[in-house]
Design brief:
The complex is a heterodimer. Chain A is an alpha/beta fold. Chain A contains eleven helices and eight strands. Chain A has one domain: Rossmann fold (3-Layer(aba) Sandwich). Bound molecules: adenosine-5'-triphosphate (ATP) and magnesium ion (MG).
């Protein structure tokens, strides 16, 4: 049965989507059947894997509102083994529409459960907010991956998100685990980056991934170009670090199952 | 001065009314409101300290005062010199890191 990872942080621009796209591509590269589900109406993961929002026929919104079976919203990407369920702006409405649904926190979980057996990994990219969509994503997930920018201010939202996740675990999804906290946008020459890494290792210990994602212009450019970096430059440090993360997650998972 | 009612009876009725009002209070909500209003965490039970019938915007209202036990602390070093709270970014992330650590342990 596929493992569902929710990528979340209440703060915007911390590398959620970059992580969702490049980690998904890395899983696929390693040979894991992977599905990336874009749950953010901004649709950056959708464009991040090279899809044009204008050309989309069916999206996650159609599945959520019952207009299409979920299977029909799954699209191929340029990467073998990586599929995607796209979104576009109309998904903004999902937030409101979910409100009036019975069992409103479990809609996404029920929706994607038939897809579970078809994939090794299902990655959910979420918006930077605490709305019902994010709650649905956390409720649907087996584990939570939190990107943490190497900046002082990032810690505040980490604590907030952890408190929120603890609540989701208590009330909605008792099997939710912390996949890990991922340090991103690390700058070797910057004192702040070093302090954040040292502090995270001291306090958060094993909850922090060993892999650290460096600040990289190539990663930034690849998301603008709509191509996971692994496709355009597999030797780039940014591409390699996400590949390393994929291996680390696979190892961790094997360890928890053992 | 012409008295038209017994003062003691009026007083007793007023006290009984206030007791009923106190009994009807949703203490959980009140605690939340007070915590939000004053940005604090109340560790102990709330106790009513005083209550009054008042006129608020030309209508009858009730003013309930609470007594709250707060524990506050001040740091000082061996020489008795005051140590201000650590508000440097480094100190701040250390505190937040500790908080995150506690939550992770619970998960
Ligand atoms: N490791 C990195 N090095 C350099 N730039 C990065 C890195 N990771 C992400 N970025 C850039 O930072 C910006 C924000 O990243 P991203 O879109 O992944 O964040 P997000 O958390 O998904 O944002 P939002 O909350 O808006 O969805 C983007 O321009 C992205 O290209
Ligand atoms: Mg994003």
């Amino acid at each position: 049965m596929g493992h569902i990872i929710c990528i979340a942080n209440l703060k915007g621009g911390v590398g959620k989507t970059t992580t969702a796209v490049n980690l998904s591509a890395s899983f696929a590269f390693i040979g894991k059947k992977t599905l990336l589900i874009d749950c953010d109406p901004q649709g950056s993961a959708t464009t991040g894997v090279g899809l044009s929002k204008k050309k989309l026929a069916l999206t996650l919104y159609d599945a959520l509102s019952g207009k299409s079976p979920i299977e029909k919203t799954v699209l191929d990407t340029d990467i073998e083994g990586l599929k995607v369920i796209p979104v576009r702006g109309e998904f903004f409405r999902a937030e409101l529409e979910l409100m009036s649904r019975p069992n409103k926190e479990n809609v996404l979980r029920n929706l994607i459960s038939p897809l579970r057996d078809c994939y090794d990994y299902i990655i959910l990219d979420t918006p930077p907010s605490l709305g019902l969509v994010s709650i649905n994503a956390m409720t649907a997930a087996d584990s939570l991956l939190i990107p943490l920018q190497c900046e002082f201010l990032a810690y505040e939202s980490l604590v907030q998100l952890l408190k929120f996740a603890r609540l989701v675990k208590k009330r909605l999804n008792s099997s939710l685990l912390l996949a890990g906290i991922l340090l991103t946008m690390y700058d070797m020459g910057e004192k702040t980056s070093q302090q954040i890494v040292a502090n995270a290792r001291k306090h958060l210990k094993n909850a922090v991934f060993k892999t650290v994602i460096p600040r990289s212009a190539q990663l930034r450019e690849s998301s603008a170009q709509g191509k996971p970096l692994l496709l355009s430059d597999p030797d780039a440090v940014g591409a390699k670090s996400y590949l390393e993360l994929a291996h680390e997650i696979i190892k961790r998972k094997a360890r928890t199952l053992a | 001065m012409t008295k038209v009612a017994n003062t003691e009876v009026l007083e007793k009725a007023r006290n009984e009314l206030l007791e009923k009002v106190k009994g009807a209070l949703e203490m959980k909500e009140i605690r939340r409101i007070l915590e939000d209003q004053h940005n604090l965490e109340i560790s102990d039970d709330l106790e009513v300290h005083n209550s009054q019938i008042i006129i608020h915007n030309n209508r009858i209202g009730y003013k309930i005062e609470f007594e709250v036990l707060l524990s506050l602390s001040v740091l000082l070093d061996e020489n008795g010199v005051y140590i201000p709270p650590d508000e440097t970014p480094e100190g701040n992330i250390d505190q937040l890191g500790g908080l995150a650590e506690d939550i992770i342990k619970e998960m």
